[in-house]
Amino acid sequence: MAHARARPRPRQHIQVLVAAAMLLLSSALFTTARFPLAVSARLPNPTTTTRLLLFAGLPSSSPLRAFCPRARPSPATCAAFSSTMAAADNPLLVADFDFPPFDRVEPSHVRPGIRELLTRLEGELEELEKGVEPTWGKLVEPLERITDRLEVIWGMVDHLKAVKDSADLRAAVEEVQPDKVKFQLRLGQSKPIYEAFKAIRNSSDWDSLSDARKRIVEAQIKEAVLSGVALEDEQREKFNQIEQELEKLTQKFSENVLDATKKFEKLITDKKEIEGLPATALGLAAQTAVSKGHENATAENGPWVITLDAPSYIPVMQHAQNRALREEVYRAYLTRASSGELDNTNIISQVLKLRLEKAKLLGYKNYAEVSMAQKMATVERVEELLEKLRAASWGHAVKDMEDLKIFAKDSGSPEANDLTHWDLTFWSERLRESKYDINEEELRPYFALPKVMDGLFTLAHKLFGVTVEPADGLAPVWHSDVKFYCVKDSSNSPVAYFYFDPYSRPSEKRGGAWMNVVFSRSRVLARNGLAARLPVAHMVCNQTPPVGDKPSLMTFREVETVFHEFGHALQHMLTKQDEGFVAGIRGVEWDAVELPSQFMENWCYHKNTLLSIAKHYENGETLPEEIYAKLVAAKNFRAGTFSLRQIRFASVDMELHTTYDPNGSLSIYDVDRRVAERTQVLAPLPEDRFLCSFSHIFAGGYAAGYYSYKWAEVLSADAFSAFEDAGLDNEKAIEETGRRFRDTVLALGGGKSPLEVFVSFRGREPSPEPLLRHNGLLPVAA
C-alpha cells in the first residue's frame, strides 16, 4: 500500500494560523524599534489597528473572527496595509535576490508589481534630481541603481512573455507598458541629470577619468539627446506620444507573428503525402499530433501535424518529395501575419511613419541617421560595404542557380524547367548530398545536445581558461527544460552564471534564438562580500526537442546556432569591466555586438573541436574523418546565395529607413521588390510578404541595423584569421591567442570603442578580405 501524502494546507487555514500567531505577538512587535519602517509607518495604532487588519484578512468562516475587535480601521489604513501585504507577496517586488524568481511570477503579479516598482523608482529619481552633483557618487552610482532595478524586473516580465506567453500575460503587459515607457521617458529627459553629465564632461577632472567612465558620460549625454531631452513643450509631448505608440506597435507586431505561426497546422493522415521526410521529422510531427489530441499518433503510422515552427518547417522544405505540400507550407510561411486580424502591413506603415517623424523632431533627415548615432558605421559606409559584398556574391549566386537547374534536369525532375521558390531548398539538399556525399539527417545522431554542450564548454576552457559546470537547482527556472550553469575561472571561483532554454515550444515561445542580460557585472551593485555583482545571462534556442527516449539530435545548423549564442553570452559573462553601464555587452555599439557570436561559429569547422562533440548518441563512435572532410568541403556550398539573402534583408532595412517615404505612393512591398532585383537571382513571388514577419527590424533592436550581421562578420572573420595565422594545429599558440581574445574582445565590454578593442586584439584595423576568403568568394591566395 502506498504511503498517503500529507495534503498541503489550504491558503485560508494558513492565514488563520498566521493571524493568530501575529495577534499574540503584535504588541511586543510594535514596541520594538527595529520593526520595519515600511510597515510601522503605515500602522500608527498597533494595539487596535493591527489586530483589526490581521482579522480583516481572515475568511468569513474563520472561528477566530469571534475575537475580532468591533472598531473598524480607516479605508486609507486598510489600503496601505493591503498594498504592503501585496508587495510582500509579489515576486516582482522582492527587495533582493541572488537570482530572479522566474518560477513564482504569474500574470497577476505584473500590474501591481510594475506599478509599485515604478512608484518607488519615481521617488528615487526625484531624490536624485534634488541632490544631484556632477560626481560619480552623487550621479552615476544612484542612476545605475535606478536603471538596473527597472531593467532587471521588467526584463523578467519581458523574458517570460518571450518564452512563456499567454493571453493573461499579454493583457497585463499591454496595460502597464505605457507606464513603463512614461518612466523611461521621464528618466531619459531629466534635465538635472543631463546637465550634471555635461558638467562632468566640461570639468577639469575630465582627463583624469578612465576610458570606461568617459564612455559612460558621453553615452549618457548622447542617449539623453536621442530621448528628447532638448525638446520643449509641444515637441516633447509629440515625441513622447511617438515613443508610446512605437512600443505598442512593435509589441503587437511580435504577437501577430507568434500567433500567425501558431495558427497554421497541417494534419496529414496519408504517409505518401510526406514521403521523403526523415525519421526525426516524422517523429516530431507525430509528437506534435499527440499534443493536438491525436493520442495514438506514431512516427510510423501517423497521423502527423506539420507547423511553421522551424524544426517542422525546415525538414519539409528540405526533404518532402510532395511538391504541392512544399508549396502550401512555403506560401503559408512567406505570408505569415499578412492578412486578416493578424495583418502587420498597417503596423509596418505606422512604425515607419513614426520613426521618420521622431527622427525629424530630433533634427535628423531620416531614422537611419538616428540609428547610426550610436553605432560604429555611417549610412554611407554601410551602403559601401553592402555593395562591395553584393558585387562579390552576385556571380556566385547566379552560378548556384544554374547548377541547381542542371542537376534537377539531370535527375529527370519534371519541375526542372520551372524551378521556383518551394523547390530551391529541396533541390539544394539533393545537390549537396550528391556533390559532397553528405546527408544532414544522417549527421543528427552524432550531434546529441548533451555532447555538443560538453564540447562547447571544453573549447571555452581551452581558449579562455574558464570552466562551465551544471548548477541546476541553484536558481529558479521558468520551465523544466531549462538548464542552469556556473562559469568559473582558473582559481575555481565563480565569475558568471547562465540559463539555457534549448527547445522549441510553439504554443508559448517565440521563434528564433537569442541571448539576453539578466544581471550585468557591477561594482555598485556588489553584494555578499564580492567586489562586483557577477553577470548572469540567458541563452534561448528553438531547436529540435527530444523525441521519445532519444535526446535532442541536432542539425549542424542548430550546432552553429548554439555556438553563436554562447559567443554572445561569453562577452557578457567574461567582462572585466566593473562599471555596470559598460560591462559585458552593455555600451557596445550594436554593429559590433555580433563579433564574438559569429567568431564562435568558426570553431564548428575546426577539426579537433568538431570531432570532440560529434559522438554517436548510441555507441559513442566519433564522426568519421572522411565525413568531417566532406562537411568542411560543403561549408561554402551556395555561399553566394546565402550572402545575397542577408544583403537583401540589410538593404531593404536601410532603404525603408533612409530614402523611402512612408507617406508616398510606393508601398513597402514595392521597395522590397526593387531591392530584390539586385539581391535575388530568382525574383520573389508577387505575394511575398516576408516583411510582415521581419521581427528583427519591426519588433527587435535591428531597425536600420540589420547590416550589423555583415559588418560584424567582417570583424569576426578577421578575428578568427588571427587563430589561423597562429596555426590551428598549434595548441599553445591557440591558447595564447584565445587568452588575448578574452582579455580584449571579451573583457573590455563597452569601456573602449569597438575599433580600439579590435585593434588591441588584432594589431591593425579590420579587413573584409578574410570574410570573402572564408566564404569562398575570393581565391584563397588573395
UniProtKB/TrEMBL annotation:
Stored InterPro entries: M3A_DCP (IPR034005), MetalloPept_cat_dom_sf (IPR024079), Neurolysin/TOP_dom2 (IPR024077), Neurolysin/TOP_N (IPR024080), OpdA_N (IPR045666), Pept_M3A_M3B (IPR045090), Pept_M3A_M3B_dom (IPR001567)
Cofactor dependence: Zn(2+)
Gene Ontology molecular-function annotations: metal ion binding; metalloendopeptidase activity
Cofactor note: Binds 1 zinc ion.
Residues in Peptidase M3A/M3B catalytic domain copies: 316-776
Keywords assigned by UniProt, alphabetized: Hydrolase, Metal-binding, Metalloprotease, Protease, Zinc
Catalytic activity of the protein: Hydrolysis of oligopeptides, with broad specificity. Gly or Ala commonly occur as P1 or P1' residues, but more distant residues are also important, as is shown by the fact that Z-Gly-Pro-Gly-|-Gly-Pro-Ala is cleaved, but not Z-(Gly)(5)
Every Oligopeptidase A N-terminal domain range: 114-236
Gene Ontology cellular component terms for the protein in this record: cytosol
Protein's GO biological process: peptide metabolic process; proteolysis
Enzyme nomenclature, EC number: 3.4.24.70
One Pfam family it belongs to: Peptidase_M3
Similarity annotation: Belongs to the peptidase M3 family.
PANTHER family with a match to the protein in the record: LD37516P, PROTEASE M3 THIMET OLIGOPEPTIDASE-RELATED
Official protein name in the record: oligopeptidase A
Native source species: Miscanthus lutarioriparius
